[in-house]
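ARCHIVE CARD
Drawer: 12
Card no.: 0347
Subject: one protein chain, sequence and derived structure
Cross-reference: see card 0346
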Amino acid sequence: MPTGHIMMAMTLDGFVARKDHTLDWLDKQDTAGEDHGFTEFMDSIDVIVMGSGSYKTVLGFGEWPYTKPVVVLSRSLVQADIPDHLQDKVEIMSLEPVDLMNVLGDRGIKRVYVDGGAIIQSFLRNGLIADMKVDIVPILIGKGIRLFGELHKDVDLALVSVSDFKSGLIQMQYRIRQ
């Protein structure tokens, strides 16, 4: 079965996006010249899995930012909802996380980038995350979509590394203890 991996930015108060999925708070940060390792991370993965909220947010960026295949987990979207220019890059599925990982494994996928608050929470609940890199952005927004929600049991983490940046951003990397 493939392994799930997270690389997310969140506010100091634990939110990955506003309630409407906007990320405008990220634009307020001056991180010019800082390498947070995103390119290296993307080079290490085979496919991106995200929910419909994250997908719609990314669509709003204008130019599609990903070169890797994207699977959108959604019960409301269908493949016909994907713009023509993304039909060969984005696939809609309505599987449960374990079933999705089995399908991806059958396709030869080894490493999956799991993106988006609700999707990350469901993969964590199902024990499908191997490690995570979380960037804490020095801003408080008060409400929004949490990175971590309710879990059925504790998720024990082992700290791998911590890095700090001139912008005030702190990056923590954890391995999930199984």
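Annotation on reverse: The CA atoms of residues 48 and 70 lie 5 Å apart. The first strand starts at residue 3 and ends at 11.
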